[in-house]
């Protein structure tokens, strides 16, 4: 696979789960990859080892999405290391859970800072380095469009906001040949929501295909959006949730 040969990608939150699968798939497609992490330095290094094993270059950058300057610096460090930036994947995120009356303003601020503001800051910084063929892809959630149970208010809010951000940036950046899209995973087998977890059977019960997604499924969709094959797709939301929202 070499659809992304010569490209440089930055994946925020790329040390584990869906982010790690995306970083690895982009490398397999030929891209050199930078990834950010907040705490999991050892996991970030493990992903770098896999990237280098497929003969691609990679760097790991410590950057907490709550710190806007750290996000901007991650973009600049990527450009400094590789000389360019073609693909940004806004993947870093948290999953706050709790009833509305138990949710604090601090919970709200942290969720928006990481899940929403971080994507805006990274996208603005990355777009300054992109030209024709640039790609910005955010990882949303099927819960942005349908909330089937209580306790998900903040998460759904933060991911729904990314839909508007995606559509607006698609209009702003389209004249420069830069596409902006969002991918909405459903229940995906990661350490945040394992396929053998206590709520897993309930989640499978809502799916048309009662099977948890694999992070590599999401990574494959992202890799396609990052390629020239998707050059006419922008401002779009693509849901990959086994039919939960069908």
Layout of helices and strands, plus pairs?
Layout: E1 8-11, H1 17-28, E2 32-37, H2 41-53, E3 58-62, H3 68-82, E4 87-90, H4 105-127, E5 135-139, H5 153-173, E6 179-185, H6 200-204, H7 215-226, E7 237-240
Parallel strand pairs: 1-2, 1-4, 2-3, 4-5, 5-6, 6-7
Helix pairs in contact: 1-2, 1-7, 3-4, 4-5
Features:
246 residues; alpha/beta; 41% helix; 14% strand
Q: H/E element string?
A: EHEHEHEHEHEHHE
Q: Roughly how much helix do the residues carry, as a percent range?
A: 40-55%
Number of strands: 7
- Oligomeric status: single chain
DSSP summary: helix tally: 7
Task: Write a structural description.
The protein is of the alpha/beta class. The protein has 7 helices and 7 strands, in the order βαβαβαβαβαβααβ. It has helices at 17-28, 41-53, 68-82, 105-127, 153-173, 200-204, 215-226, and strands spanning 8-11, 32-37, 58-62, 87-90, 135-139, 179-185, 237-240. It has a 7-stranded parallel β-sheet, sandwiched between helices. Helix 1 (17-28) runs parallel beside helix 2 and helix 4 (105-127) runs parallel beside helix 5.
What's this, in brief?
With 246 residues, the protein is an alpha/beta fold. It has helices at residues 17-28, 41-53, 68-82, 105-127, 153-173, 200-204, 215-226, and strands spanning 8-11, 32-37, 58-62, 87-90, 135-139, 179-185, 237-240.
